[in-house]
Each structure stands twice: as structure tokens, then as C-alpha cells.
């Protein structure tokens, strides 16, 4: 184990940016696995509520193919029955993402970037970035969510919903992964420690 630590320390000295990216990649994938475990659990629990029959379609921004296009488009009804999952699906996605991002924030700050800057300031910027990225990812999801669910359900029947959940979660995580790394480099700084007075 000491040999591995020594090799890693040497690699980190020679390639600080690459080593930081590799740690970011490992932590991000760990958080993605957590999301993939948590999402079906949240969705299964919320699908048993009346929230699945409550539509959540907000931030309309035009039309696609003559149909209204919403940034957050979760029509009422179960996905397996041709609906959009309703408020239940929206909450499952957002609660899962929020839990994962809180864990991600602390791990990336301490483990990847070893930041000693203001946690409050970093958290403020992180939340702002999370909101902007979530809206952008939701807008993009409108283009790929329905075709993925239809394809998976046609191919696998009711099990296709679970497979489609995983695929859409992976796409969402991939978007976040590539957008967050440069943001983290800005908000998670290592500030110079003041020198002790002699």
C-alpha cells in the first residue's frame, strides 16, 4: 500500500491537473452510482402516491413538432401507461440529484480540490451552478427522454422503464460531469495561508 501511495504522490507532483481530473472522475462516478441506486428507490416510493397523477409542466419555451415544449415536462400519469410520471417523477429526479450534489460538493471540495476557501461562498456558487445546469439538463432531456422510454418499453416491456431510468440518469450525470469540472476549478480554490509573524 505504501508503494501505491508513493507512486500516486509522485504522479500527482508530475501531473497535478491530470491527477486532479482523475480524482474528480472517480468521485463523480461514485456519486453517479449512488444516484443510480437512489433514483429507482425514490421513484418507486413516489409512484405509489397521487403525485404521479399531478402534471408538472413548467417553463414553456415554444413548440416541437406542433406540441408545446416545456423545460420541465412531466405530464400526469405513469410512464408505463404513456404518461410523463407527473410530479412524482420530477421529485424523484430532483431529490436524487440534490442528495447526490450535496455529497458531491463536500467530497469534491475536500478530496479532489483540497479547497480551503470560504465554504459559504463556494456553496452559494455551487447552488447557482446546480440550478443553471439542472434547467439546462432538463431542457435537453425533453429531446431524448420520450424516445428512450418508448424504445426501451417497446424492446423490454415494463422492465424497459427501469432501463430507461438508468439511461436518462447516466446522460444527465454525463452532462453535469463535463460542465461541473471547470466550475469546480473556479469555486474550490486553495487560498494561501497567511505566514506566521516572526
UniProtKB/TrEMBL annotation:
Top-level division of the source organism's lineage: Bacteria
UniProt entry keywords in alphabetical sequence: Membrane, Transmembrane, Transmembrane helix
Membrane-spanning segments: 21-42, 119-144, 156-181
Protein name per UniProt: GtrA-like protein domain-containing protein
Amino acid at each position: 500500500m505504501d508503494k501505491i501511495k508513493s507512486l500516486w504522490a509522485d504522479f500527482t507532483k508530475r501531473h497535478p491537473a491530470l491527477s486532479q481530473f482523475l480524482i474528480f472522475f472517480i468521485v463523480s462516478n461514485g456519486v453517479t452510482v449512488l444516484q443510480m441506486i437512489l433514483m429507482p428507490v425514490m421513484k418507486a416510493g413516489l409512484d405509489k402516491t397521487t403525485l404521479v397523477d399531478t402534471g408538472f409542466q413548467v417553463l414553456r419555451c415554444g413548440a416541437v413538432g406542433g406540441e408545446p415544449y416545456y423545460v420541465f415536462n412531466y405530464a400526469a400519469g405513469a410512464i408505463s401507461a404513456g404518461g410523463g410520471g407527473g410530479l412524482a417523477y420530477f421529485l424523484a429526479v430532483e431529490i436524487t440529484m440534490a442528495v447526490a450534489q450535496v455529497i458531491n460538493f463536500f467530497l469534491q471540495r475536500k478530496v479532489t480540490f483540497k479547497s480551503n476557501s470560504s465554504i459559504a461562498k463556494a456553496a452559494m456558487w455551487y447552488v447557482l451552478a446546480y440550478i443553471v445546469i439542472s434547467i439546462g439538463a432538463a431542457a435537453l432531456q425533453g429531446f431524448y427522454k420520450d424516445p428512450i422510454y418508448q424504445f426501451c418499453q417497446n424492446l423490454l416491456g415494463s422492465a424497459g422503464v427501469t432501463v430507461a431510468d438508468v439511461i436518462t440518469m447516466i446522460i444527465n450525470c454525463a452532462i453535469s460531469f463535463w460542465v461541473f469540472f471547470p466550475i469546480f476549478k473556479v469555486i474550490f480554490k486553495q487560498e494561501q495561508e497567511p505566514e506566521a509573524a516572526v
